[in-house]
Amino acid sequence: MSNSDNSFFIIKALENGVNVIGLTRGKDTKFHHLEKLDKGEIMIAQFTEHTSAVKVRGKAEITTSFGNIKTEE
Predict the structure, then answer these.
(1) Would the CA dihedral through 68, 19, 37, 32 be positive or negative?
(2) pTM of the shown model
(3) 8-62: pLDDT as tens digits
(4) How far apart are CA 4 and CA 14, in angstroms?
(5) Residue 47 contacts residue 8 (beta carbons within 8 Å)
(6) Looking at the 3D structure of the chain, how many domains does it have?
(7) How many whole angstroms separate alpha carbon 55 and alpha carbon 24?
(8) Which is nearest to 44 in space by CA: 15, 71, 13, 66?
(9) What pLDDT score does 4 carry?
(10) By residue range, what is the domain housing residue 37?
(11) Domain presence at residue 59
(12) Is residue 2 part of a domain?
């Protein structure tokens, strides 16, 4: 996956302590990155040759080219 394919997404924390966890590509999926966001903070990210999935833990709103979704309370 190239970095120019516009696979960006936005995560907005709706509470303090939202965890954004990056997971690797390859034979074994592994944790490789963690960010912690506080209420009102946003993170703009994209999938890469190393990141195949992102897990969001906590109250947040995620915006992608497919639409918006909020995590459950």
Answers:
(1) negative
(2) 0.80
(3) 899 999 999 999 998 887 777 777 889 999 999 999 998 888 888 889 999 999 9
(4) 29
(5) no
(6) 1
(7) 11
(8) 13
(9) 47
(10) 8-70
(11) yes
(12) no
**Cβ proximity of 18 and 24 under 8 Å:** no
Residue with tokens 């120019």, as numbered in its chain: 4
At residue 2, does pLDDT exceed 60?
A: no
Q: Which residue would you say has higher pLDDT here, 42 or 72?
A: 42
Residue type, 63: T
Q: In 25-71, which ranges are E strands?
A: 31-37, 42-46, 51-57, 60-64, 67-70
Q: What is the CATH number of the domain that holds 49?
A: 2.60.40.50
Which CA distances in Å does 70 have to 23, 25, 32, 42? 20, 25, 24, 14
If you write DSSP's letter for every residue of 6-24 in order, what string do you get?
--EEEEEESSTTEEEEEEE
- Is 38 inside a domain boundary? yes
Q: Which amino acid type is present at position 23?
A: L
